[in-house]
Amino acid sequence: MRIRTATTIAALLTAGLSLASPASAAPAKYADDFNGDGYRDYASSWGEGNEGGGVLITFGTATGPGTKTQVVSQSSAGVPGTDEADDGFGTVRAAADFNADGYGDLAVGAPGEDIDGRRSQGAVTVLWGSASGLSGGTNVPAKARTSSAAMGSDLAVGDFNGDGKKDLTVVAAGKAYVYRGAINRSGVHGTVSTLDKSSSSFHATAVIAGSVNGDGKTDLVVIGDGVNTEEIWSEAWFVKGGTTLSSGRTLRLESQPGGGGTAYRGGDGVIADFDKDGYGDIAVGTSLYAGRKGRVTLWYGSSSGPGTSARITQNTSGVSGTAEANDLFGDSVSAGDVNGDGYKDLAVGAYGETIDGKEYAGVVHVLYGRASGLTGTGSQVFTRNSAGIPGALEADDCFGALVRLRDTDRDGHADLFVSAQVGALRLPGTSSGVTTTGITSVPADGLISGMLQ
Q1: How far is Cα 317 from Cα 300, in angstroms, rounded to an integer?
Q2: Which pLDDT tens digit goes with each residue over 371-383?
């Protein structure tokens, strides 16, 4: 069985795109226009020739990613730190115009960074956008100064206190730290909040950000797991945005009796408005559920936060296939409006799916939003042997190991990007859904690995 490496797990994250040139006093409309030319750029992890990792920027054009690229590592001028083996610089990335200068900036995690003899304490650096691309960097101060803290193992951005400044959330040592802006080239100037369930063994592993209750402040969902003498579990912890971050609700994902084992470790997550009611909905995939069959758990947003919940598996009516051990349904999820109807849709990868006896061939499902929310009705399914998809069906292809929905040609329809061992693909979105007509290949460690969530 093929299991993804930590670098691969962290590689596929996404942001937005910009149509406006930077103005001296206007923040970038979209987060990943690093050179301010109005086109979306792409950031991916890059290891070739850099033992400690790096970031590859592929600059966008009117038709998508172009040929102009840039590589930034800890060997680049103005970037703090030293390029050392196993730093993992760039494995996790989050984009925002932190200093509101009209250029997108990029927060980069290096969870394997050794500092002052503390192995894998980790580090986070903000790389600054400019007319020539990313230039120089500023360290985010560490709050967990211990070995194995793995600072930067996940990142999320938003305006969590509603003051108009971009804030940064960093996972380190099983906790989430919220760094409030202003964040600029001279440092982090706001306060830092520590989100930690000190009364339990909850261990944070991931963070997602978005507006769940519609109050104009970014809310945060901290995904993690825990183990005690009675059970092991995975949960999503909703933290309401505001001047003082509220502890909010604990949203249980999975649990099972018995203690001392390994918890489920909630997988990928996203906040998007699937029922178009003005409130962001939470979708979290837990691929290890029920013998690694996997499922996606939903909480629909409301003025009071997460409300009605639902669960989707490959046994849900309208969803193709059957839930089977090791399918890993929900290991990667992504939201976007494929058919342009104003409802966000959800792509779900199940890279462990066995097809025609070939283990880990992989499959991708696209679920469509509507007034009643996400269901299996009208869903689509894609595999390597679907009509129009290039390549042969093979074991260990892991088709759908990472999925992203993004409108890269600016036609109002999110396109489906799918990664696999033998190559990554872009399937265009249309008013009638995802199509294989006009399908194109994309670099596995370029476009598809670089899209920021």
Answers
A1: 19
A2: 999 999 999 999 9
